[in-house]
Amino acid sequence: MKLRRSTFIPLILLVYLAVMSYIGFPEYRQGHYFYYFGVIGLTLIIIALLHLFLKKRERQRP
After folding, report:
1. If phi over 0 gives left and psi between -120 and 50 gives alpha, with beta otherwise, what is residue 22?
2. Which of 6, 16, 45, 48 is the most buried (most CB within 10 A)?
3. Is the separation of the CB atoms in 3 and 51 below 8 Å?
4. How do residues 9-61 score in pLDDT, each as one tens digit?
5. How far apart are CA 53 and CA 42, in angstroms?
6. Do the Cβ atoms of 17 and 43 come closer than 8 Å?
7. What parts of the sequence cross the membrane (predicted)?
8. What distance in Å separates the CA atoms of residue 60 and residue 29, rounded to the nearest whole number?
């Protein structure tokens, strides 16, 4: 099974987000819930949009 670019790049970014979320966990423990989950949520939306954009570009190319 070949891993396509539209899947590989978002997967790498999700792993990066998981690591950054772990590093930022003390921020959550200090009570900055909106900041912690806001950044994670915004990043997930951007990664999803990137995946859709890359998938669309792959379909357009022969």
Report:
1. alpha
2. 6
3. no
4. 999 999 999 999 999 999 899 998 898 999 999 999 999 999 999 999 988 87
5. 17
6. yes
7. 7-25, 31-54
8. 45
